[in-house]
Specification:
The protein is an alpha/beta fold. It contains 12 helices and 9 strands. The strands form 2 sheets. Strands 5-4-3-6-7-9-8 form a 7-stranded mixed sheet, sandwiched between helices. The protein has a two-stranded antiparallel sheet with strand order 1-2. Bound molecules: S-adenosylmethionine.
Amino acid sequence: MTVLELRQRFRKDLAPLYGQNEIDDIFKRATAFLFGWSSLKVGLVPNDILTDEEQKSALNMLAQLKAAVPLQYVLGVSHFRHLSLNVDPCVLIPRPETEELVQWVLDDHSEDECHVMDLCTGSGAIALALKQERPSWTVSALEVSAPALEVAKGNATKNDLDIAWQHADLLKDTIDFSTVDIVVSNPPYVLPSEKKQMHANVLAHEPPLALFVPEEDPLLFYRTIIEQVKRSSSKNIPIYFEINPLAEEAMNVLNVQHGGKASQMKKDLFGKKRFLKFEQ
Ligand SMILES: C[S@@+](CC[C@H](N)C(=O)[O-])C[C@H]1O[C@@H](n2cnc3c(N)ncnc32)[C@H](O)[C@@H]1O
């Protein structure tokens, strides 16, 4: 099999799942990971023949991709801001929008000393990015899933960053915010009724615990977080949320109910209302 034939095989096998530009991007990233190929390989040496070993490993990777396993799980790695994070199917693959949530916190806070807490940390993406970009801050992070927390801890070691991890259930346990200055969270916010519009690879492979909230209570995590923070701390702690754009109206109501007079909403890079800073 030649280099060009391999790309044709990717295009054919992955066509039911992805558009051609996306397939070509997957092909480049997969072959860079496997063989260190440059993105110009197909253009420069289309007729080079793969060794048996190369062909075997490329087709093995393609088989997983064809089964709708996201590329990041196949490679075991995802990138978030300046971090390389290990990911497996017990953690959500960090999204580009969430990088903007981190940026909002950084833009608002340049103080040297600060304790920021990331709730629902998953792979640790938000907590680790904040610690990397504000090394003098104290960063803690909470997660209910023990396997996810192990991935997050591994990512802290991999990136040589120090985080205070907490294994707890936000919906059941009482969380102590008495020393916390800023809260940030990207909690589960997808409604089961949104499944129809979701990509097969997300539905079949990303952890439901990270994605879904009950249809009848879409704001469960936001309400609980605001109530927990207000109960535990007398300070006016800003809470930076990633939100479901479909829940914009309901989030506004929740904000007013909880006295979020100084709150702000922001759009993401796709122009969707995606973030809320709750502040009294
Ligand atoms: C949308 S993911 C966000 C992961 C990561 N913060 C990110 O932005 O990529 C939500 C995370 O919340 C965790 N989670 C779900 N229910 C929880 C609960 N009751 N208490 C704490 N964490 C919870 C999930 O396991 C998952 O890791």
